[in-house]
């Protein structure tokens, strides 16, 4: 794949050097931030990484899927050094999945003639690669990997829609088992899969088959709370392998009820929470509006695209009421939406080498919006994900 394949000389007044410069600066900005964390010894956030010690062997836990798989593979709990390796591998896989998703999304027929611009917007967005890096100690890279795998799953596997449905059910359940709030983004993907199939009873049954396991896990995750004794057992386990975590960590907060979660939000000023929500909601909204403008007329006004957009945006908004990690929710919403568009429009068969040979002209407001988004995104790469004051 060459630069020329995605980037013609000019896109309606936006030059190829500018687009390439945005991509280069975005990569460098994230590399510098990562290097700074490594030099400070803060690559691994133990508070968040303790969720890798959750296993369903201690009873049902929300977010227990990755820890269960890790424990089965290792036969024991990982040490702190091994946990650093695990999170690094998960982050690399999450970044690779994100790269695959944005490249495939930029190649959708809707962006014909504008592939390079769409790719630049998705790479430069604070809600894509930088969010995976920022949340590397959480389970988010695993969720991104599973959601992208679901988005790229063929309609037929070994010529069978039913086998594809079984695999989709497994991927959806694994994603929700890693983060229960991902259920809304998974539902968007499953809706897109269902609407791609011929109408009939088979489509309804396959949709129910794909949705049921993940929905059951989501409901159990939201309704069941681990007992304090179970949380103490998990804390004792990661203490035995030399992991020193704060008394309040990402495992202990799983016992919180909705009122307790809302009380935790009040530790930060209301103005701070409103500002953070507005920043990340605006990043999501502007990215969607810009992609819609870059897309061909009507490409994003289909019932599938609108249903998936509402599902993803509503999920991010609702989760933001109880969780102030707003960047995470809108990042996963964008991943879910891009995945839904890929499922709904399917991957093009045109070779990458012939893409983007003729740029497409855009109205003046779209050009200005594009430039603003790209410039703001470069700053937004380093915008704090977690409310650091108030």
Automatic annotation (TrEMBL):
<feature type="transmembrane region" description="Helical">
    <location>
        <begin position="116"/>
        <end position="133"/>
    </location>
</feature>
<feature type="transmembrane region" description="Helical">
    <location>
        <begin position="329"/>
        <end position="347"/>
    </location>
</feature>
<feature type="transmembrane region" description="Helical">
    <location>
        <begin position="83"/>
        <end position="104"/>
    </location>
</feature>
<feature type="transmembrane region" description="Helical">
    <location>
        <begin position="204"/>
        <end position="224"/>
    </location>
</feature>
<keyword id="KW-0812">Transmembrane</keyword>
<keyword id="KW-0472">Membrane</keyword>
<feature type="transmembrane region" description="Helical">
    <location>
        <begin position="162"/>
        <end position="192"/>
    </location>
</feature>
<feature type="transmembrane region" description="Helical">
    <location>
        <begin position="368"/>
        <end position="389"/>
    </location>
</feature>
<feature type="transmembrane region" description="Helical">
    <location>
        <begin position="304"/>
        <end position="323"/>
    </location>
</feature>
<feature type="transmembrane region" description="Helical">
    <location>
        <begin position="274"/>
        <end position="292"/>
    </location>
</feature>
<protein>
    <submittedName>
        <fullName>Uncharacterized protein</fullName>
    </submittedName>
</protein>
<keyword id="KW-1133">Transmembrane helix</keyword>
């Amino acid at each position: 794949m060459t630069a020329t394949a995605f980037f013609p000389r000019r896109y309606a007044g936006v030059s190829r050097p500018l687009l390439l410069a945005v991509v280069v600066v975005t990569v460098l900005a994230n590399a510098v931030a990562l290097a700074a964390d490594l030099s400070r010894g803060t690559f691994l956030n133990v508070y968040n990484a303790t969720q890798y010690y959750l296993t369903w062997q201690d009873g049902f836990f929300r977010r227990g899927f990755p820890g269960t798989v890790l424990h089965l593979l290792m036969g024991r709990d990982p040490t702190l050094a091994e946990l650093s390796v695990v999170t690094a591998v998960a982050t690399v896989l999450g970044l690779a999945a994100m790269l695959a998703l944005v490249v495939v999304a930029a190649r959708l027929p809707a962006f014909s003639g504008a592939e390079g611009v769409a790719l630049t917007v998705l790479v430069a967005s604070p809600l894509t690669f930088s969010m995976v890096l920022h949340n590397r100690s959480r389970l988010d890279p695993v969720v991104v990997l599973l959601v992208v795998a679901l988005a790229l799953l063929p309609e037929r596997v070994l010529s069978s829609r039913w086998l594809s449905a079984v695999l989709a059910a497994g991927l959806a359940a694994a994603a929700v088992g890693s983060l229960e709030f991902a259920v809304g983004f998974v539902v968007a993907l499953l809706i897109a899969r269902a609407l791609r199939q011929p109408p009939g009873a088979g489509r309804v049954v396959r949709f129910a088959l794909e949705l049921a396991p993940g929905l059951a896990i989501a409901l159990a995750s939201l309704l069941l709370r681990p007992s304090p004794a179970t949380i103490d057992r998990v804390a004792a386990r990661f203490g035995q392998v030399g992991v020193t975590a704060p008394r309040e960590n990402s495992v202990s907060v799983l016992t919180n009820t909705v009122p307790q979660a809302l009380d935790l939000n009040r530790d930060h000023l209301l103005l701070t929470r409103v500002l953070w929500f507005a920043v990340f909601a605006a990043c999501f909204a502007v990215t969607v509006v810009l992609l819609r403008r870059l897309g061909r007329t009507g490409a994003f006004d289909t019932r599938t695209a609108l249903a998936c957009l509402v599902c993803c945006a509503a999920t991010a908004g609702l989760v933001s009421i109880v969780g102030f990690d707003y960047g995470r929710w809108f990042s996963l919403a964008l991943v879910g939406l891009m995945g839904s568009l890929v499922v709904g429009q399917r991957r093009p068969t045109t070779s990458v080498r012939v893409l983007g040979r003729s740029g497409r002209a855009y109205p003046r407001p779209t050009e200005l919006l594009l430039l603003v988004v790209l410039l703001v995104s470069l700053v937004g790469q380093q915008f704090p994900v977690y409310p650091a004051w108030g």
